[in-house]
Amino acid sequence: MNQENSLDAVLPATPRGARAARALTVHQLTEHRLPFTEAAQVVAELAANAVTHGKVQGRSFRLRLYINPGPTLRIEVSDTRAEDVPPAVAELPSPEEESGRGLVLVSSLAARWGTDQGPVPLKTVWAELDLTGPLSPDRGFRDPVGRTPVSLDTQ
After folding, report:
1. pLDDT at 135
2. In what order do the strands lie in the sheet with 112-117?
3. Alpha carbon distance 3, 6 (integer Å)
4. Quick one: the chain helix, strand, coil %, rounded to 5?
């Protein structure tokens, strides 16, 4: 997978759209024989945040995946709530809180992550995963179900 062979999908800002983003990521990386476990988790968290915190009625969110030299997988999730920017440093919430751990997870899985603004009203939260590091035993290379997770027209 490279810049010419990347994924660029516009998905509905719904829980179903967030699940589709994760499934598309698994499918795309599996097709290119790349590890997908960490990427799928990062996409799941960023897409869930776009659906929960970045949703504007009638607007979608965008998922982009591509490989940079290194190789590094770059994941970008864009939504239309530029005013709702995540904190620059992910902090673990108190144990009583029921949510707020997603960016801590992204921070632990990604080599780098951040937020880009614009053009108005867009905000893009991105994460980069180093694909050259040692493989952990739970790092997947194939879809455990053995089938295409979803079939969507992403245009």
Report:
1. 46
2. 7-12, 60-68, 72-79, 123-130, 112-117
3. 5
4. 30, 25, 45
Torsional sign, CA 77, 81, 82, 88: negative
Q: What DSSP state is assigned to residue 39?
A: H
Amino acid identity, position 66: Y
Averages of pLDDT over each 10 residues, the chain, 155 residues: 72 95 93 89 95 80 89 92 66 62 85 88 91 53 45 44
- Please give the model's pTM, rounded to 2 decimal places: 0.76
Q: Provide the token pair at 141.
A: 């290379």
- For 48, the token pair is 């869930």
Helices within 13-113 (DSSP H only): 15-31, 37-53, 102-109
